[in-house]
Structure prediction request, 1130 residues.
Amino acid sequence: MEIQVVETQPPAAGLPVTFTQHAQQSRTNLQLAAEFRTLSIQLSEDDERRSQRLRNVQGFLQSPRWREIFNEIIPLRSAYQQRWTDDQQRSVALTKIAEHLRSATHHTETVNDTYVKFNTSPTLGLEAEAVKRRADRDGPNVVTARPRLVYLRLVSWFFGGFNRFLWISMIAFWLCWQPIGNPPQTGNLALAVVILFVICLQALFSAWQEWITSRALTSITSMLPAECTVLRDGQLQKIAGVQLVPGDVVTLRAGDRVPADMRLVSVSLDLLLDRSALTGATNPTIGTVNYTNENYLETRNIAMMGANITQGQCTGVVVATGDRSVLGRVTQLTLRKKVARTILQIEVHRLVNGLTTVSLVVGALFILLWAVWLRTSYPGFMSVSDALANGFGVLVTFVPGSLPISLTLALTAIAKRMQRHNVLIKNLTTVETLGTVNVICCEKTGTLTQRNMTVTHIAYADCECLAARLMGGPTAAARLYETAALCNDAVFDPETAHLLPAERTVSGDATDCALLRLAAEIRPSPTNVVKLLTIPFNLRRRYMLAVCKQPNGSPYVLVKGAPETLFPSCTQAQTADGTLVPFDASLRARMENTQARWAEESGCRALLLCRREFSPENNPLAGLEDNPAQMYTVATQSLSGLCIVGLVGMVDPPRTEIPSVVDTFRGAGIRVFMVTGDYAPTAAFVARQCRIITGSIIDSIEDALDRAEHHLIAKTNPAAEEKPLSRLASRISNFTSNASPQMDDLCKCRSTPTSLALAREESLAETAVGCRHSLVVSGPELEGLRAEHWDAICSYEEIVFARIRPDQKLQIVEELTARSNYVAVTGDDVNDLPAMRAAHVGVAMGNGSEVAKEAADMVLLDNNFSSIVTAIECGRLVFANLKKVIMYLLPMTNLSEIVPSMFNVVLGLPIPLSTFLMLVINTITDVWASTMLIHEEPEHDILLHPPRDPQKESLVNVKFFVQAYGFIGVIETVTGHFMFFLSIYWQSGIGPSSIFLAFNRWSDGYLGFSKAQLAEFVSVAGSVHFMALVIMQWGNMFAARTRTLSIVQQNPLWGPRCNPLLLVAIPISVAVALFVNEIPWFNEVFLTGRIPVEFFFLPIPFAFLLIAAEEARKYVVRTYPSSVVARMAW
Prediction:
C-alpha cells in the first residue's frame, strides 16, 4: 500500500537528519542559496508590505539627498553604471519569478487534482503520444547555462595573458619605425606586423583550445546520464532525466537525485530530502504529501530539481522541467561563476609573471645602459630606435607565451586519456589533485569485494550448519524464510523466474540479495503474507524492520540487523526444530563467539534475524493498518522481547585484482585504509585478503593510545624515552620467541632496518613502535579521542576502520586532511556524501547511487577499483609532462636568447640573433615539440615514487632553474655562439677577438670590409646561430622526455612508451628555417641570410653531445642516489 505522511507528522526518532552538517558547499551553491532565500522572502511578503517597501526605495532614489550623494561619486559613475544596470535587470527578473511562483498552486492542490491537471494516471502514467507532444512543446529537461558574452571572450583571447605585453611590444616597434626611426627602418615595421600576426595566432589558438576543452569536458560528462524510474503506458521504465516531461509519474528511492520539480503524491514515512545545494539548509527536510506552507519554496510536498533523496522513497508528478523549474529560474539569476584556476595554472601564471618581470627589468636595463653609457661613449653604435627595439625584443622573446595554453591542453589531454580507461573526471582540477593523493579511504562492499554476497553459515540456538546443507524443522525454516524474504528490499527479476535462485537476477542491496536467494532456496514459491510497513536499514540504528500480516492473522514484526545492536533486545531464540528457548547470557556468549569465529576463519559478515509476535488480545499493531504514522511509532517501540530466528553468515569475496592494486599503491607511497560498517574481525579478514593489512602484529586502539602516550612522554621528558613499555615489550618478546623466522618480514618497515631478534629488551618496545604499522579500530572506540591520539592513529601505515557511521567517516577524513594528507574517498550511496565532499577527491562507482555520482569528483564507470591506479598515474603524469615542457622551453626562450642581446649591449658584438628569429623559435619551431611532450607516456617508475606535496614541491624550483639554465642552457648558448663566430670566420676570416668590444667600430672600413659586407656576415651568422639553436633543441627534446631514465629505457621510436610524433618537429623546424632564411623577401626585410649547407650538419654532433651529457647525468642519478648530482636532479 502507498503510505502518506500528513503535514503534522514530526521527525521520527533516530533519523539521521544531521549527517550533512559538515558538507562543503561550493560557491555556486551559495549563490543559488542566496537567490533562493531572496525569492522565498519575496513570496512571504504580503502585497501591502511589498508595495510600501518599493515606494520607500523609489522615494529615496528620487530624493535630493540621493542626487547629492550620487553627484559626490561621479568619478565612479562609469565604473558602476554597468553593475547598476545589471542589478536593475536582476531585480526585474527576480520580481517576475516571484510573481510566477506566488501564483503557483501545485502544492495546494490535492493529489487527485494534480493527476487531473496534468492529464496523467497513477496506474498508467503518460501515453507515448502525450510524451512526444509535451517534449516538443517544453523541450529537454535541462537547465541552460547563460552563454558567455562574445565580446568578453574576444577581449580575453586577444588581450589576456601574455598578449597584453605583445601589444605593448608591437606599439613600441611601430613607433621605432615611425616617428622615432630616423631614417625609418622597414624591419621594425615588419616586426610590428609579425607581432600582430603572433597576437592573432595566439588568440586563435586560445579560442581553439577553449573550444576543444569545453567539447572534451562535455563529452566526458555526457557519459554519465542521470536516470530515473518513470511510469509510462502502464510500465515502469528507466529513462534519462533529460527526457522527462510535465505529467510524468516518477518513483525515487534513497540515493536518487530529483530530476525535475515534482508534486509528491506518495511518500514513505522516513522520506528525507537534502535541498542544501539549492536552499543552503544543512539539515535534510522531511517530505510530505500535504502542503505545509503557503510559500511554494518552503512547502514540504514539492521536491525541487537538484534535491537528493537521502532516505526513504517517494512518487511524484512532474510539474516543471528545465528552465521552468525552481532551479532553472534561480540559476538564471546568478552571475556566471568565474572558473577557479587550478594549482598548476596558478603556478604557471606565477612563472610567466615572474619571467615577464625579469624581462621588463632586463629590457629597461638595456635601454638605461644605452642612455647613460653607449649613447655617449660609442656614438653611432646604436640609435634610439635600435635601443628601444633591443629592449622590447627581450620582452617579446623572454617569456614562453604559449605555456598557459600548454597547461590547459595537458589537463584536457589527460582527462581524455582517463576517459579511455573508463575514468570520468568532472573538472580539470581533479586531474592534478590526483597526483598529490597519499591516502585512499575505500569502502569494502562493492569496492574491494565483488558485491556478490552469499549466505554460507546459519546458526540456531542449539546448533549451526552450512547454508548448502540447511538443517531444521518446518517451523524453524518457515520463520527463517519469512524474515529473510519479507524484511528485505531486494526483488527478483521476473524474467529469470525459470532459473535457479543462485542464477536469478536480483536488484537491491548485496546483503538483501543474499538473503532473498536464501529464502528462495528454503521456499521457491512466495507466500501470501502482506507487508504493512517497512523501516529501511540505517547505519545509525543498524537494523531493518518490517510489519507483516497473514491474510487472516494479526500483525507481527520482523527485524534484521547487526548482532551487537539487536542482542540486548532479544529474550528468546529458536532451536533447529523450532522450539523457543530463553536467550540468556550463556547463549548470547556462544552466539558472539560464533560470530567472531566465522569472521576470523572465513571473513563472514554476520546478521541477526529476529521476529516478535503478539497475542491476539494484546497486539498494539492491530487496527493500525490504515494509520501508518501510528504504526511507525508503535513498531519502533516494539524492539524488545525479540525472538532470534537465526544468525546467518555471508561472504563477499574480494575482487581478484585488489591485492596487486593495493601493492601498487603501497609502492607509490599511498596508504590504503578500509572504512566500513562491518564487524571488525570480518573487516580485518577481508583487509588481509586484499593486502591492506600485511603486518604480523595488528594493533588495537589500546596500543595506539599507548603509542600516543609514549610519544607525548618522550616529547615532554626525553629521559623517560629510555624506559620500555612493559606490556608492549612482553608482547613483542612472546611474539619473537614463537615467530623468529618471520622477523625479517616483520621489520621491513621503513622506520628501522634493525631486526627485532637482535634487539635488546630495553629497545624492543621502541623498535616495535616503529615496525608495528597495522591497526584495526571500531567506530565506538573513536569517541572522545584527543588530537595526540589521532596523531598516533594517522601515523599507521595500514588501518581498518570498522563499524563506522557516516559522521565518523567524515571525522576520519577531516583528521587525515588536518595532518597534511591528501585524501581520496570512495563511496556509493548518500551515507558517503559528507566524507566525499570533505575529501580532496571524491570517487564514486558507476553502479553507485545518482547522488554519490553527482557529488563525486571522479566516477569509475567500469566499477573497477584498479582504475584508480590509472587515475593516480595520470594525475602524476600531467605534472611530470608539464615540467618536461617547461624544461624544453626555458633554456631556449631565456638564456639562449637573452645572452645574444646582452653581448650586443655589454660586449659590443653585432647582434648575434635578431628579434625576428627569436620570435620564430618561440612561436613556430618550438610549438610542435612542446605540444607532443604533453602527450608523452609515463615513465615506468612514475608509481615508484611518493606522491607530490604541493606545499613543498612546486612546478619549478632552484633545482629546476639550475638544470634549465646552468646545464642545458649553457650548452645551447655556447653552441649557438660558437657557430656564430665560426660562420663569420668562415666567411671573412674575422676572429672572435676582433668581434668582441667592436661597438661602433663595426662599420664601413672595419678590417677592410664595407658596411654592406659586414652586415651580410652578421645576417648569415645570425641565421647560422638560429639553425644551431633549432638543432640543439632537437637534442633537448629527446633529453627532456625523461627525468631519470635513459633514452634506451624509454625509446622514443618504438615500444609501449614511444612517442614517434616528436620526430615530426625535425622536418617542421627545417622547413621553417629554409622558409625564413632562403626567401629573398625575408633576407631583405628581416636581415636574415642564406645558411651554408655545412651549417645544417655541423651543430648535429653538439646535439648528440647534449644528449650524452644528459645520459651521463641521469646515470649518476640512478646509480648514486645520494650523490650531489642526484640531490640536484630536477
